[in-house]
Amino acid sequence: MGAERPGGVVITGASSGLGAAAASELARRGLAVACVSRRGITPEVPGADGRLLPYPCDVTDSATVERALADFNERAGGIRALVNNAGLHEEAAAAEVGLDALRRIFEINVFAAFAVARAAYPYLRRNGGVIVGTGSFFDRLGVRGNLAYSSSKAALASINRTLAVEWARDGIAVVTVAPGFVLTELNREQLADAENRAKVERRIPIRRIGTAQEVGQLIAALVVEAIPFLTGETIYVDGGQSIAL
After folding, report:
1. 22, 73, 104, 148, 167 from 144: Cα distances, Å
2. CA-based R_g, the chain, Å
3. pLDDT confidence band for 92 (50 / 70 / 90)
4. In terms of DSSP H, where are the helices of the chain?
């Protein structure tokens, strides 16, 4: 039933990493995808047949985001889902984190994510839909060097819970997908070091790093299946790391 819902999917930060993986999975399932990113490029997906549409856009520019959503809504015959994936990750010891750096992280990971969700709201409430936010399992951990990033992801999850409650009567479900250590362009160099990678993998019960495709598959399933009763939750995808003693 969820797969029959009309319209396409908007994904921010879709040019690489988890966003590209989610876009690829959704295109394979036959959905039109607005790939919103500063680089304005789409992932290469064999057989996508024009379903991946590039929208060069800085998510902190609300006017540009609103124009992109309006255009895609017309082209796709509606918007059925938003994947709020664009994000920024910087590391620094807490004593060295300046307020400007903290604001920069929150501007993208929190404020822009809310602004995009608010811009998508009028389209989603027409036929119901789902918003998926890309969080992190750092949101409930104390992680050295990650004060700004961890707190921003905790804030995003909190915002999504409130949106889930307020927008439930509009037929909009809101969930957060919180990955653990997943190999992407952001950490590829760090994990290329065998010793570093082994150290990380020893802390994960399934003894390996996750893949962007695995996270993309979950996001695509949440969008395609559209389970209205599943809302307000944070789903951790971390190989069991955050619950392991």
Report:
1. 29, 42, 19, 10, 35
2. 17
3. very high
4. 17-28, 62-76, 99-106, 113-127, 147-166, 188-191, 194-202, 212-225
pLDDT tens-digit readout, 45-79: 766 778 999 999 999 999 999 999 999 999 999 99
Active-site pick, 55, 121, 123, 149: 149
Residue with the two structure tokens 């990750």:
89
- Estimate to the nearest angstrom the gap between the alpha carbon of 210 and the chain centroid: 16
**Domains defined for the chain, CATH in brackets:** 2-238 (3.40.50.720)
Q: Determine contact, residues 70/122, Cβ cutoff 8 Å.
A: no
Decide if 206 contacts 239 (C-beta within 8 A).
yes
- The strand pair at 182-183 and 129-134 is best described as unpaired
Active site residue 121: no
Q: How many residues in total does the chain contain? A: 245
Q: Which residue has the tokens 């209205």?
A: 228
Round to whole Å and give the CA distance between 9 and 7: 7
Q: Residues 23-61, buried b or exposed e (16+ Cβ, 10 A)?
A: bbbbbbeebbbbbbbeeeebbebeebeebbbbbebebbe
Q: Which amino acid is at 103?
A: R
User: pLDDT digit string (tens) for 222-241?
Assistant: 999 989 999 999 999 999 99
The backbone torsions φ and ψ at residue 33, rounded to the nearest 5 degrees and listed phi first, read -130, 125
Looking up tokens 């994960």 gives 204
Distance CA(234)–CA(181), nearest Å, equals: 16
